[in-house]
Every structure is written in C-alpha cells, then in structure tokens.
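Researcher: I'm preparing a figure for a lab meeting and need a structural model of a single chain. I don't have an experimental structure, so a prediction will have to do for now. The sequence is pasted below. Please return the structure as tokens so I can convert it later.
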Amino acid sequence: MKETGPCHVPHHTKLHEKSCCAYIGCVGLRYRCMNLRKLYTIDDQDGNRCKYFGKWPFQRVLGVQELLSVVFSLANLAAHAHNMHKIRTAQLINQHRPNFGSSQGLVWGLWYTYALGSINAWWWSAVFHSRDTHVTERLDYLSADVSIVIGLYVSIVRVLGVTSLQSRLTWAVPLAFATVIHFYYMLFIKFDYGFNVTLCVSVGVLQQVMWCTWALMNSHPCKRQLVAFVVLINAALSLEILDFPPIIGFLDAHALWHLCTVPLIYLWYCFILADAKWATASAAHLTPADKQQ
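Model: Understood. Here is the structure written out token by token.
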C-alpha cells in the first residue's frame, strides 16, 4: 500500500500539481488533482499504483466519486429495509397485538431497531462514497458506530436474557454514555480513524463470540445459519486487507467488501427471524419471576 510520497512526478507536471493542490480545501478540485496526478504518476519505484491523500483515485460519474461503493451501499440498505419489512410482517403474524413494548414483543422491537440503525449506517455510507467531505466522513463513521452499539445492546439483551425495563436500562444507559464520550473524542479531540476501526472490530468480534457461544449452548434452531454467517462475514472482511487499486477506476477491495455483504445480510436475517420467533414462543412459557430478570 503506497502513499503519494515515493511516487516520481515528472518536472513538467510539478507546476500544475502545486497550483492544483493549493486548492486542496475544495473537495471538487482536490479530487480533480488526484486524477490529474494519476495521469502522470502511474507507478512508484516498485511498480505499484500510488495513493493520493491516503485514497485511491477513482473515475467520477456524474459527480459521484466511488460509484460502485455507492451502488453496493444502497444495495445493503435495500437488503436491510426488505428484511425489516419481513420482521414487521412476521411480528404481526406471530402476535395478536403488535406491541413492541410487551414482553413477547421485546425481541421483535430490538431487531426492528437494529434494522433501522443499519439502514441509517448504509445511507451515510452511500453519501460518503458519493462525496468525500469533512462532514460526510464523520457521518459515515459515527453512524456505523451507532449501528454497532445497537448490535451490541441487542446481543447483551438476548444472550443474558434481559427482559425487565430496569435491567434493560442498566445496560442501555452505560452504552449510550460510552457512545457519547467516543463521539466527543472523535469530533472535538482527534478523529482517529485507526482507533475507531480497532474499537469497531473488537466490539464486532465480541458480539460474534457471544452469539455463537449462546446459540450453541442453547441449541438455537438457527445456529447453523449463525455460524455460517460468522465464518463468511469474516472471510469477506479479509477483502479490506487486500486494498488493491481500483480496477478500470471503479472496483476496489472496499467496493467488493460492500458487494459481498449484500447476500450475507439475508443469511443473517434468517437467524434474526428464527430467533424472534423462538423468543416469542419461549416468552409464552415464562413464569412471572422469569419476566422480572
């Protein structure tokens, strides 16, 4: 993975490069600068393509900077929206009264909220890939953080069997407080991309361990789909490590990662729907003492 530094820039392009990069504060001119430099600096000294400003140069289409990442982000959004509708439909079928606040409706409400958080995250991912600015970058990363925190909360509630309002607040309040502190650090102290990624990956791994351990120990009816999803999502994530330059200016490793997650969302929601139905059936047999946990 090569940055701009080692690249050789011919002398006759340096004057234009300086005049272009002088306007680096303007996103449009900055992106044009990347592509103009690309015309003259195809390779570095090792024969590898170069990055500019920490990013690969892409071919813009109608002002969209990373077309395929935008398309695949919207495909992920559509997959979550479709499955959110399936959750709502299944919840209405499995319960006579569609009340997300009831003990039986708790799990349906949790997964519905999870789907909403995921839709929001993928929307801002599409916006960020269409136009990389100071604001869209932060909205992309922080909305992804919110989605991950929601996922962690759902994991805790389901794995630990938390059902009472007081117990749920005991977990929700500290998680919300920690999220606000993290946002404050990222927005006002240091926007540390590496720290944010490490934190998100760590929380994601924790969720995977919690889910798999719990599902296997409790003979969950959809445990095979869960294990398959965990294996495949981690395999797809390895694409991010490859980080190759965009093929014909459009398809890079990050776009491929977004493409691979689309079918995996449906596999994940197979587990979610089975889990909600299983929880609804189990809740019908709980004693009053169990429901106070």
